[in-house]
Amino acid sequence: MTEPLLKCVGLAKSFGDFLAVRNVSFEVYPGEIVSILGSSGSGKTTLLRLIAGLEAPSAGEVIVQGTVVSTPDKQVAPDQRAVGMVVQEYALFPHMTVEQNIAFGLHGLDSDERVARVAEVMELVQLPELGSRYPHELSGGQQQRVALARTLAPRPVTILMDEPFSNVDAGMRNEMRREVEAILRDGKTAAVFVTHDRDQAFAIADRVGIMSDGEMAQVDTPEAVYHLPVSRHVARLAGACDFLSGTVQADGTAFTEVGVFPILSAGEELGPDADVDLLIRPDDFGIEVNESGMVLLESREFRGDETMLVVTLPSGATLRCRKESFFGLPAGIRVDLVLRRPTPFAAFRS
Fold first, then answer.
1. Which segment of 6-10, 117-121, 163-167, 202-206 scores lowest on mean pLDDT?
2. Of 343, 350, 311, 307, which Cα lies nearest the Cα of 326?
3. Which residue, 239, 214, 200, is CA-closest to 346?
4. Which of 3, 83, 172, 211 would be a feasible disulfide site paired with 42, CB 3.0-4.6 Å?
5. What angle do CA 5, 121, 77 make, to 5 degrees?
6. Where in the chain do CATH 2.40.50.140 domains reside?
């Protein structure tokens, strides 16, 4: 089996009485992109700083290519651990040209080798003609690519990216994310991508780690984190959701007020007659107009590329349903729910 390029084992970091990171363990394999998703204050940036060597852990280890580079008693210097970092401000030197910025970390190479490596990474990030420009002469997207090129130039085994698109307007964000992903994939570079933006986290990652209160609550594929979260809290962090009450049947399905559905336990074993809550995402149900339907279309919110509907069930509980942008039914009509989900629902004990 392929060995991980980066491995964190039981990492913890305290600042006085505040435990910012607690018992975090995960791996990153060659060519893999792992997104760390969490809200502000969840510990994700502190985790990156521990991996980069900018902070010493209070407990645990950071292992790079099989070598322990961080423990509470041992710290390999950041520039000696083959880990590169791209921060959200890009941190380009304003008095240096693009070529000089990229060459800055290329120690130990003679001048011909340095020139060749700078040209190679400039080609990789598609900026071969901008070497003589200064950072202030570049667009935000170009600055971001220069920062990435500078990080790639020393050939790190892993790249850490801290909110790399936060300074870019929404219209450019997806385009830049696709460009960066292509560069990382082309270079077969392992990467850890930290963000609070779940769309970006899911779009770029092979696996997603959910951080909350300093802990890594779940690390899995984007699909598993979204549809089969390990807790209600992870479910909410992963996207819009509601919960539908039900009772487990002898055949392992759950009986609810709108139908009987297959389920998978998101935690403890669920036996017959157990009261559960099914995780419902806005994509799980559609609606059909029915004057005698049991569900009321309570409200609708037009969002440009989609319309979010809120329906009220007989019990008074509400669910959200996502429909296409041109969906134009008015609120206040009766409808039926139509199941669109092809897989079992995650179920949590009530």
1. 163-167
2. 307
3. 239
4. 211
5. 45
6. 241-349
* Closest to 294 in 3D by CA, of 327, 328, 258, 255: 258
* Single-letter code of the amino acid located at 212: S
Q: Which of 26, 146, 145, 150 is CA-nearest to residue 85?
A: 150
- For the domain 241-349, what is the CATH code? 2.40.50.140
The residue-averaged pLDDT of 94-104 equals 92
Pairing of strands 190-195, 33-37: parallel
Pairwise CA distance, residues 191 & 85, whole Å? 10
What's domain 6-236's superfamily in CATH? P-loop containing nucleotide triphosphate hydrolases (3.40.50.300)
* Structure tokens, 48: 């990156």
Alpha carbon separation from 139 to 24, 134, 142, 181, 220 (Å, rounded): 37, 11, 5, 19, 35
